[in-house]
Every structure is written in structure tokens, then in C-alpha cells.
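thought: fold this chain, then report.
action: predict
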Amino acid sequence: MWRSRGASGAGFRSGLAVGTAFTLVLDLGMIPVAPPKSNRLHPWDYDHAIYKKRNEIERLFRRFKGFRRIFSRFEKLDVVFLAFLRFALIVEALRLV
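observation:
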């Protein structure tokens, strides 16, 4: 589970700030990956490589905003929507090459 630095406080990590969200995340087998704030006295370890993937996914969704059809959900059928989503992924992959 990827979180931003703003949601990486001690309250979330102990499960108090968002109810039982942290315990639910651990029960589902997810590992929270959020870097501590730079001014934290006792920072915890986190996986830097996984956290960098978060940026790539955020940029992908930003590029999807250029495909108005995806965010507006014009298609009524799931099959057509998924086909256009795959088309958008192919276009983005070709732009990177």
C-alpha cells in the first residue's frame, strides 16, 4: 500500500488516525510503504524501490487524463472500456519508445 508522507504519521502507523485502517492493511497482507518525514526523530525503514514505483503510477494516471474517454467513462460496456484502456496503454508505451 503506497501512502504519501502526509499520511505517514505515528497515528496512522498505530491504527488510531484512520480507525483500524492500518490493521486492516496488515491483515490483507499489504506492506505500507511510506517514507517518514525528514524532520522525524526516529525514522523507520521503508523500501525505496517500491516507493519510486508510486511516482511512475501517478504519472501514468496523469497521462491518462489526456484520454478524456477513460475518465468520462463514455462506454457503457465494460469490454469496450477495457479495450480503450488497453489502447491508451499501447499508445503510452509507444510514446516512451
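thought: worth noting. The chain has a mean pLDDT of 76.
final: C-alpha cells above.
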